[in-house]
Amino acid sequence: MIPFLHIGPLAIPTFGLMVACAMLSAYFVLRADLARRGIADKKSGEAETLIAAPCLAGFVGAKLYHLLESPSEFFADPVHLLLSPYGFAWFGGLLAGFATFALVAWRLVKRSAANGHTLSVLTIFDAGSPAAALGYGIGRIGCFLSGDGDYGIPTSLPWGMSFPNGLVPTTQRVHPTPIYELIVACGIAWFLWRMGSAALGAHPQAKPGKVFAAYLILTGAARFLVEFIRINPRSFLGMSNAQSAAVLSMVAGVILALWFQKHHTTGTR
What we know:
Elements: E1 4-7, E2 10-13, H1 14-36, H2 46-69, H3 71-76, H4 78-83, H5 90-114, H6 121-146, E3 161-163, E4 170-174, H7 177-202, H8 210-226, H9 241-265
Antiparallel strand pairs: 1-2, 3-4
């Protein structure tokens, strides 16, 4: 594994490098989706704000959530742990990033309304869904390269890998779960993009939110399943924190999808 790239006196964390690549990839996908939906021109700068603000908030949320999971350890050495480049919780990043994306989307809707244009927050969520799925998958490459403990349980499968030089080393052959998540995330991103294309082509005025509902269900299901072979500790009802969040994601997606189905069958727009 390659936790750091050494360029002269500089040591560049591969995890941070891949997170930057994830943000860049998500930006290009989101920019293209906003443009094809007629929400914002590619030169407008809206995609930059919708990516940068949630990502920064996600970093802060992930760090704080991780630290507050062990408050006694944090208060024993707060400065060192706050400034440490390690220790981020996916669930905290999800909460902070999602809340910030919703806030930025709401402000964009308000600006559009002031200019006489009708825009729904759910339409922006639809546009952001393929970008979020792809960005998540590419970010997982950073977990793989750094060997930060996001790998799975021991396995005898031929593609099992060991991480002897990782940040959280292991000499056992384990499931390379970041690679699994990368493959699935790319498939989900492709499906959501095609789903958005089909909706825009067949029903340009279709009620927004269906792509976002599919995103919640598919990404929730993927994370829920992969957690069975991950080494994360179990907490609520024998599930990891990530699995609990994944269940909530799937439930929210199903409720949203059923609501759309009901309104479609009754002819409500």
